[in-house]
From TrEMBL:
InterPro entries (alphabetical): NTP_transf_5
Top-level taxonomic group: Bacteria
Name of this chain's protein: Nucleotidyltransferase family protein
Amino acid sequence: MNAGPEHKLCDAPGCRPNPAQTLLLKAACASANVARDFWKRWRAENEPASSGAASVRLLPWIYLRRDELGVSAEDAAVLESIYRFAWITNQRLTGSALAVLATLEHHQIPVLLLKGLPLLAEAYQDIGGRYMEDFDIMLRDEHVEPAVAALAESGWKPARPEAFSVSARRWRHSEELTHLSGLSCDIHWRLLCRPNEPVDEEPVWASRRTILLRDRPALTLSPEHMLVHGLVHGLSWERVPAIRWILDTHLLLRRHTPDWPHVAAEAARRGVTLLVADAMAVYDEILPGEIPAEIRRELARHPVSGRQRRAYEQLTRPYESTSLRMAWDLYLSDWTRARALEEVPPGLRGFLQHLKTYWRVTSIFALPWTFLRKVLSRAKR
């Protein structure tokens, strides 16, 4: 393992904010005396009602800062409607999450809240301050199938057939449950989309802590695990860039002072130092000085394997990109365990079964057509 060739910061449109989004983020995060100018500059060329899906996710928080930013009455009315929509949606999600927690507690299944709801509860401290589409929980791997069965009794079902099977869970880190009400819940059994070797998740459970959700206790990640999770998820490619991770991180750092060496060690343990270092660099460009420079330098100096570098490339480019090499890396990373448990046939047949799960197709006979679509999609870009 070595440092490899000089690394270039990811500049893919789906991974980092564009100039207009950067202005809006600075308006959301900066101190009041300078945030007003960023808002004016953003507003001079953008309309709140048509600002794009990524920027709209920031507008509920902008609404809460409307007096500090000098938002006009006309704009405040638009922002209020966006805030109220987020407030209503988040109330529904919170109620649904509490019901899920109660069901799992009844079945003696430990659960951690991830992402939006814990951030709302302790960082945003306003139920409408963060736009959300679903809620996320984490279970130990051995509890996933019992939990899915328990939740089925109250109207939750997998979004995809066999999504939570043992073979599917080996190659993925989370899957979606949908409810009769139209709400969604993502169940994680690993914290991150595993790009490299398997990682023991027990340190996540050992460092869990309690927060209050509607005055009810719930478990969530430590600030350090929450930070690594948010940075990796934030910089990963999405069709709608997840730029709100910068606001999430800013508010989390206002609430907690993390153990920075622990953050660096956790990134190294998971093989995601490239992603975390790049996310910190992007963050520092927008909000300089909030993350210690020494931690960023330490991560940048950390040795990176070829497999980890390919994983970085995979996570920071569109899903349609051909990913046979990445799929092969994932297959090899779990090969020893899979062979020992006799869960996966050896050789080509085992890899094809893995690829079926990795590309989310229903049959191995669909793989050639899926591969062809990926090649054609990549050729068009």
